[in-house]
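[Discussion] Sanity-checking designs against the backbone

I'm trying to build intuition for which residues belong where. Below is a C-alpha cell string of 130 positions. I'd appreciate it if someone posts a full sequence so I can compare it with mine line by line.
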C-alpha cells in the first residue's frame, strides 16, 4: 500500500511537470515565429514597394497625390489591414492573392507592429532648427 502510494505521488509529480512544460512551449514558439514573421515582413515591405508611398518605417509619404498615409507604429486591426490591401480605397494599388498571400500580409503586419514609436520632435536635433 505504501509503495502504491509512492507511485501515485510520482505520477502526480510527472503529470504536473509535463503540464508545466507543455504550457510554456507555445509561448516560446510564438515569440520565435513573431520575430521571423516580422523579418519576412520587412523584406516584403521593402521588396514589394510599400515603402515608396508609406516610407521605410511606415511613417507616411511626403507630397500629395499618391503619397500614402502613416501606417505604423499604430497599425489598423488585422482584418481591416488585410481588407485594405485587397481592396484599397483610392490611389493605392490593390494587392491580390497572387501578389501577396494572407500569410505574407500577416508577415508585413507583424513587421509594422514591431516598429518602435518615433522619437518625440524635441529629441530630433534637425527638427529643432528654424
Ligand atoms: C502607389 C502608392 C502606394 C503603395 C505602393 C502602397 N500604398 Fe498603401 N496607401 C496608399 C494611399 C494613397 C493610401 C490611402 C488610401 C487610398 O488612396 O487608397 C494607402 C492606404 C494604406 C493603408 C490604410 C491606412 C489608413 O489608416 O487608412 C494601409 C494599411 C496601407 N496603405 C498599407 C500598404 C502596404 C502594406 C503596402 C505594400 C504592400 C502599400 N500600402 C502600398 C498608397 C500606397
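Best answer:
Here's mine. Compare freely.
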Amino acid at each position: 500500500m505504501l509503495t502504491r502510494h509512492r507511485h501515485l505521488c510520482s505520477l502526480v509529480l510527472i503529470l504536473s511537470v509535463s503540464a508545466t512544460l507543455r504550457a510554456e512551449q507555445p509561448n516560446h514558439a510564438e515569440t520565435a515565429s513573431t520575430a521571423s514573421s516580422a523579418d519576412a515582413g520587412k523584406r516584403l515591405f521593402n521588396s514589394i514597394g510599400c515603402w515608396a508611398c508609406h516610407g521605410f518605417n511606415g511613417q507616411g509619404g511626403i507630397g500629395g497625390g499618391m503619397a500614402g498615409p502613416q501606417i505604423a507604429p499604430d497599425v489598423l486591426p488585422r482584418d481591416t489591414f488585410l481588407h485594405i490591401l485587397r481592396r484599397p480605397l483610392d490611389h493605392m494599388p490593390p494587392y491580390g492573392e497572387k501578389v501577396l498571400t494572407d500569410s505574407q500580409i500577416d508577415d508585413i503586419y507583424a513587421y509594422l507592429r514591431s516598429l518602435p514609436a518615433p522619437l518625440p520632435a524635441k529629441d530630433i536635433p534637425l527638427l529643432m532648427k528654424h
